[in-house]
Amino acid sequence: MKPRWRVLIIDDHAPSRASVGEAVTTQGGQVVGNGSHVEDAVHLVEVHRPDVAVIAVGLTDGDGVEAARRVMAARPCALVLFTSRTGPDVAARAVEAGVLGFLAKPLRPEELGPALDLAVSRFRDFEAVRKENRDLKRRLESRKLVDRAKAVLIQRMGLTEPEAHRRIQKTAMDTRRTMADVALSLLGEDLSPLRAAK
């Protein structure tokens, strides 16, 4: 049976790690790794690819918020900050670093499930938005390339804009490449496939 979550726990206090681990297991999750250092967070997220990482604010070699920032830069995943410090400065830094949920120390096991569920759900939404943004950016870049290539064809071959578009489109179909790839070839001065595509 698939676990509710695959969880990485980063905390320099062994009893805290144990209490989080016990709550995770009791609520249907699986602990995939433990650590106590900032560098552990980055390394273990890469190795285990958890659904969510619970990171304490205070770590042996530094700050859990910095660990969260490094994780999000290297291999993003859902992050929950485990802290006894609840000031607005910590919360603001944590959110800016990519933290999606908070758990208060000492842990109340009944709070763990909702916090992890919320963080995982927010991360999925975050990833969906990131993917949409990447796709949109790629489409815009492709369109710009094709427009630049059309301008070259219009100038060098005396074609109209619709003719230049059709020429690029036909070349793409004939060579089984994208229009952006054909445009890149054209902008690299290789006009031969386009001259052949009438």
Topology readout:
Elements: E1 6-10, H1 14-26, E2 30-35, H2 38-48, E3 52-56, E4 58-59, E5 62-63, H3 64-74, E6 78-83, H4 88-97, E7 101-104, H5 109-157, H6 161-175, H7 179-187, H8 192-196
Helix pairs in contact: 1-5, 2-3, 3-4, 5-6, 5-7, 6-7
Determine the N-to-C terminus distance: 59 Å
Oligomer: single chain
Architecture (CATH level 2) name of the largest domain: 3-Layer(aba) Sandwich
- In CATH, the topology of the largest domain is named Rossmann fold
How much strand? 15-25%
Q: Would you tell me the overall average pLDDT?
A: 89
* Alpha-beta content class: alpha/beta
Largest sheet: 5 strands, parallel
- Determine the CATH superfamily of the largest domain: Response regulator
What do these coordinates show?
By secondary structure, the chain is of the alpha/beta class. It has 2 domains: 102 residues, Rossmann fold; 62 residues, Arc Repressor Mutant, subunit A (Orthogonal Bundle). The chain contains 8 helices and 7 strands; from the N terminus they run E-H-E-H-E-E-E-H-E-H-E-H-H-H-H. Strand 6, helix 4 and strand 7 form a beta-alpha-beta unit. It is elongated.
Summarize the structure.
The protein has 8 helices and 7 strands, in the order E-H-E-H-E-E-E-H-E-H-E-H-H-H-H.
Features of the shown structure:
single chain, 198 residues, alpha/beta, Rossmann fold, Arc Repressor Mutant, subunit A, 2 domains, five-stranded parallel beta sheet, two-stranded antiparallel sheet, 7 strands, 62% helix, elongated
